[in-house]
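Exercise 7. Given the encoded structure of a 324-residue chain, write a plausible sequence.
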């Protein structure tokens, strides 16, 4: 097995996804140039899986980073696995391909490796990222996710993306797509919040049975964007059990939390714009957690969700009302 595939998982469509990805989301107050610098550092460190989204509003900068690293000979385009996501104001089928084409234009790339439906809940179609009514309430819209999925399949057929998948879907929403008449391609993955306080074991079993990979985001919950996360939420990396296991292995609690996911067979995203941390988060292949360590971390699960997206709670496709 060559190095490229050594730390990768084979997707149900035959493509390979590196098991650790570099997350590029940052709160609004962080300058977009930071995403470019951090992505270049990440590629130098060894990351080959870059995760972004139209919603992050930094694809221009992330694309520049990738192209500069190709230009200086560090990587070839085919070495990079790049993910973008369809924002929820573009779920109407006729808006899907133009949305992907816009991301490609921002990135200055010919194709992406993975295109995901970012969230199953539609918002009012149009240019506003978070469309609000006169009272400041977000305007939701119902779009059949199976119709959206058809449009993603066409993007794959057109060669604009190698693989297609979903994010923040529960098992019932995955079933809707899997049981769709005339399904051409299954989702290759479901990207969801996942960490020791929310270990997603039921969703994981379900996805495994359908050959769908789980990609864990907010794996360290170290970026606490007040727009999305309650300020009183617990600090995962202060968890005494993680700290004790980290000490035993001479590692950081973050490295232990990432390693935990890798040993469960998940793909994990690590997000940091700090050079030291970007390097640290990638150093997870040279140590092993024992079965007892894994069991202790499993025991931390309390189904605690940091990112609740409460404004969408009344929408029929709100994903978190289900247990998994």
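Solution.
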């Amino acid at each position: 097995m060559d190095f490229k595939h050594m730390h990768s998982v084979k997707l149900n469509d035959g493509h390979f996804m590196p098991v650790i990805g570099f997350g590029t989301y940052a709160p609004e107050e962080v300058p977009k140039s930071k995403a470019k610098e951090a992505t270049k550092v990440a590629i130098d460190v060894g990351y080959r899986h870059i995760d972004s989204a139209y919603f992050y509003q930094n694809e221009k900068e992330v694309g520049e980073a990738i192209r500069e690293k190709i230009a200086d000979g560090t990587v070839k385009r085919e070495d990079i696995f790049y993910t973008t996501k369809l924002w929820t104001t573009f779920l109407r089928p006729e808006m899907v391909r133009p949305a992907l084409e816009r991301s490609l234009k921002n990135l200055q790339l010919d194709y992406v490796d993975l295109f995901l439906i970012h969230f199953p809940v539609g918002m009012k179609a149009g240019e506003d990222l978070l469309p609000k009514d006169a009272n400041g309430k977000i305007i939701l819209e119902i779009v059949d996710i199976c119709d959206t999925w058809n449009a993603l399949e066409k993007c794959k057929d057109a060669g604009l993306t190698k693989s297609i998948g979903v994010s923040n879907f529960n098992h019932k929403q995955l079933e809707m797509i899997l049981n769709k008449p005339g399904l051409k391609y299954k989702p290759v993955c479901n990207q969801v919040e996942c960490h020791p306080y929310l270990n997603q074991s039921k969703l994981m079993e379900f996805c495994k049975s359908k050959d769908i990979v789980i990609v864990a985001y907010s794996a360290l919950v170290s970026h606490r964007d007040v727009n999305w996360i309650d300020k009183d939420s617990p600090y995962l990396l202060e968890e005494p059990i993680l700290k004790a296991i980290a000490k035993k292995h001479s590692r950081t609690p973050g490295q232990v939390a990432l390693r935990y996911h890798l040993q469960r067979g998940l793909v994990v995203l690590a997000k940091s714009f700090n050079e030291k941390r970007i390097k640290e988060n990638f150093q997870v292949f040279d140590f092993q957690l024992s079965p007892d360590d894994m069991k202790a971390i499993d025991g931390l699960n309390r189904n605690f969700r940091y990112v609740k997206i409460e404004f969408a709670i009344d929408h029929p496709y709100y994903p978190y009302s289900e247990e998994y």
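Remark. The longest helix spans residues 93-107. Students should compare their own answers with the one above.
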